[in-house]
Amino acid sequence: METVIAKVAELFKAVHADLREEVRGLDEAALNWAPAPETNSIAVLVVHTLGSEAEVLRTLRALPNDRDRDAEFRTTATTADDLIAQLDAGDLYLAEMAAGITVADLATIHHRGERAPQTGLHWLISNYGHAREHLAHVQLTKQVYRASH
Question: Angle at CA 41, nearest 5°, toward 112 and 46?
Fold first, then answer.
């Protein structure tokens, strides 16, 4: 695997590990609580982060995309183990997809929905930033939940 791709995959796996630690031990109420209107629960943030990541990986590999982004925002979780299992599956998917990404895929201009076309490297790096932002949202949501309950 190309060095850049291996490093970014490692960074995504670190986000997954941090998300696991944040959700571990939380009950159903904490996982599905949103701090205010127009905000998201921890369950939604985890599922949305994984959905976005998978979409970018498929984009770089020029594979069909069947993502239902709207459904990610209707997600609920019964247990922390549900989300941890999804993060585990995300690690496996990341490893499988990253193994097939080439330097040419990073340099190629890719279309992603309604967004302006960008290089694969742009999509990969910006999506890693997106994942880190949502990790921070999860951490803040957890803090506010604990303070208010």
Answer: 50
User: Where do we find the tokens 């979780």?
Assistant: 77
pLDDT averaged over every residue in the chain: 97
CATH number corresponding to 3-148: 1.20.120.450
Tell me the residue type at 75: T
Q: Where are the beta strands (DSSP E) in 55-106?
A: none
Phi, psi for 63 (deg, rounded to 5): -105, 155
SS (H, E, C) 101-148: CCHHHHHCEECCCCCCCEEHHHHHHHHHHHHHHHHHHHHHHHHHHHHH
pTM above 0.90, yes or no: yes
Domain boundaries, given as residue ranges, for the chain: 3-148
Which two tokens mark 37?
Answer: 């209107």
In the structure encoding, which two tokens stand for residue 52, read together? Answer: 């976005």
Q: Collapsing DSSP states into helix, strand and coil, what is residue 80?
A: helix
Given a contact cutoff of 8 angstroms between Cβ atoms, the answer to whether 42 and 30 are in contact is yes
Residue-level pLDDT at 2: 84
Query: Residue 132 in contact with residue 15, Cβ under 8 Å?
Result: yes
Q: Are 131 and 18 in contact (CB under 8 A)?
A: no
